[in-house]
Amino acid sequence: MQKLLKIFMGAALSIYTLSSCNKYLDVVPDDVATLESSFANANETQAYLFGCYSTLQALSDIRRNAGFTTSGEMMFPFPLQDQTTLGGSGGDAGFSILRGLQNSANPLLNFWSGYNMGQNMWQAIRRCNIFLENVHLPPDLPEFQRKRWAAEAKFLKAYFHYWLLRMYGPIPLVDVNLPVNATIEQVRVKQQPVDSCFNYVVRLLDEAIVDLPPLIQNLAAEQGRISGTIAKAVKAEVLATQASPLFNGNRDYISMKGKDGNALFPQAYDESKWQRAMVACQQAIEAAAAAGADLYQLRLSGGIVHMSDETRRMLTIQGAFVDSWNPEQIWTLNTQFGWQYMASPRVTAEAAANVFAVYSNFSVPLGESELFYTRNGVPINEDRTWDFKNRYKLQAGDDAHAYYIKKGYNTVKGNFNREPRYYADVAFDGSVWFGSGNLDDNNPNFINAVNGPAAPPDQLRFNATGYWAKKLVPYQTTFGQNSVQQNYSWPFMRLTGLWLLYAECLNEVNGPGQEVYNWIDKVRERAGLKGVVASWTQYSTSPNKCNTKEGLRAIIHQERRIETAFEGQAGWDLRRWKELQNVLSSPLQGWNVFNRTTDGYYQLRIAQQTVFGVRNYFYPIQDYDLLTNPNLVQTLYW
Predict the structure, then answer these.
(1) Are 451 and 349 in contact (CB under 8 A)?
(2) How far apart are CA 589 and CA 630, in angstroms?
(3) Does pLDDT of 446 surpass 50?
(4) CB 174: neighbour CB atoms within 10 A?
(5) Most-buried pick from 210, 447, 521, 593 (CB within 10 A)?
(6) What is the pLDDT of residue 301?
(7) Cα 619 from Cα 373, distance rounded (Å)
(8) What's the half-sphere exposure (Cβ side, CA atoms, 13 Å) at 546?
(9) Which domain of life is it from (predicted)?
(10) What is the per-residue DSSP string for 204-230?
């Protein structure tokens, strides 16, 4: 009997093994039984489309976004000790790049292979291709719906290629999936020149725009899905990136060639690329206006005791970002921001008493705080009326700043007479914090970072610079024994950013002029500032700066960095402008945050040394990938 049982089990195992081999040869995604069942009907097909969206939604975790973690806007003093992320890496992987820890053996933010906080973009593209190859199958799917869903998949496929393109420069283009019986040489795909890559992304976007709805009307069921307006805005950004110095006439990379000897970067600057980007920006702005996009109007919750005009302006500036799905947000992802406790100070005794409530580790460097203008709307080192030389001396809060700085509290002079966006976006020792359970700005909470609740409790839960990204924490959020967090979805694009992108393109094509000024001034007006020409003429030590293309370019770049601060945009902008190396040429500085006296606290110290050179503008491909595909070439300088 035992012998018969062994024979039966052996036969069964053989049948299972053969069956398993056959299943393996089918080459279907791990989470899908068969392609036939995935596209058997409209419901299953839509579920597969949402699977294509999953990689995009994962990008709302700003720790994955190089535009946030490697921008110089933020530093993180210690690892997050988070072992739940991809590859078992900590959530500090992106921040660690600025410490000089990037490498080709095991790259950080690896979006090529999907490790160290990266997502495998090639798998995401493969899912999109499978969807496009099979979306015609479900018999109950109406033609108009099939076209729309295919357009969404094309957009996602384009955006995933674009993400890789920004990170790695020349990449392979995977327009269709390779068949199961592909030869070894077919599998070993080659990188394409960057202009070919950009043109491919734009072609996919153009194809998608035709069949996408201009806006999402059924928000309850379809919020977060791609519209034609989103696709047009992304197209504008793609073309502006192609026209920018990193990709347009970049002499640092003209020697990078593929295995066939062809140049992978353009050899000369092409001004016409800015013209294409300018037209795309104009079309995107028109589409946004037609879809109802407009500047944010403050929407308040209940319980307000007193609110001044100054506080209302600050909350409006902040709310444009944290009040989800408002008309100013052109593109917002569904997944919610989960790191408010990293961006918040401890402003109450209750928050300080709960050691797990607030970590405060997202630390804004002093240099980033000094990026914001004076109240006159010009840089702090240009304002003739602002005491730049003595900005680190102490001054007590006064009546004129009562809604920004605690009256009578000593803080540095650099925190006085600044523009409203500074007080809306950045918090510091002595600054007023409207919210966190107190909605009375006549008697508000404030940050006591020297010897109060916001002082570091230990070597783990502390802010390393003494500046917090206030913009990322809605006023309704309260931390303490019973924390109540006002969650919000992460915006990828806002209307004001698109306006400034258009102004940038206009200046690059035509130089300074009233049309350029108008688009910048629309952004500045909401911030309570005079127009560009008036501000520079009246207050700047360089009054003619706005009258030259080079001068206005610098103004636009700084305006865009201020307006989109901490939104995951500035890092990408600084890369495409080839300005990130300048920003990170000096160490990240802050105050002596562990000192418990005012004079001792306000001693400048290096919070982190930075390592960023020419090679860091693009990411290395993992060495293992180069071994398995000898047709790939390593990113230059790695």
Answers:
(1) no
(2) 43
(3) yes
(4) 18
(5) 447
(6) 84
(7) 33
(8) 29
(9) Bacteria
(10) HHHHHHHHS-SS---HHHHTT---HHH
C-alpha span between 202 and 176 (Å, rounded)? 17
Cα–Cα distance measured from residue 502 to residue 511, given in angstroms and rounded to the nearest whole number: 12
3-state SS, residue 395:
strand
Q: How many CB atoms lie within 10 A of CB 213?
A: 16
What's the rounded Cα separation, in Å, for the pair 345 and 358? 7
Closest CA to 587 of 203, 165, 225, 99: 99
Cα dihedral sign, 587-593-599-602: positive
Residue 4 pLDDT exceeds 80: no
Collapsing DSSP to helix, strand or coil, 590 comes out as: strand
pLDDT score of 481:
86
Q: What are phi and psi of 145, to 5 degrees?
A: -70, -40
Contact by Cβ (8 Å): 509, 272: no
User: Can you tell me whether residue 336 is helix, strand or coil?
Assistant: strand
The two tokens of residue 256 are: 């990078």
Q: Which amino acid is at 8?
A: F
Distance (Å, rounded) from C-alpha 281 to C-alpha 293? 14
Token pair for 177: 């999936």
- Chain-centroid distance of CA 150 in Å reads 26
Average pLDDT, the chain: 92
Q: What is the rounded distance in angstroms from the CA atom of residue 385 to the CA atom of residue 236?
A: 38
CA distance 507 to 271: 12
Looking from the CA of 267 toward its CB, the CA atoms found within 13 Å total 4
Place of tokens 């309260």: 478
Q: Residue type at 451? A: N
CA dist 465 and 76 (Å) reads: 10
Whole-number pLDDT of residue 545? 98
DSSP reduced 3-state for 43: helix
Residues 54, 546: contact at Cβ < 8 Å? no
The rounded radius of gyration (Å) of the Cα atoms in the chain is: 26
Give per-residue pLDDT as tens, 580-596.
Answer: 999 999 999 999 999 99
Q: Which residues contact 440 (CB under 8 A, 6 or more apart)?
A: 305, 306
The whole-angstrom separation of Cα 432 and Cα 444 is 6
Return the residue matching tokens 């000790």.
Answer: 81
User: C-alpha angle with apex 285: 282 to 286, nearest 5 degrees?
Assistant: 85
Q: How far is 253 from 230, CA to CA, in rounded Å?
A: 31
Residue 60 and residue 490 in contact, taking contact as beta carbons nearer than 8 Å = yes
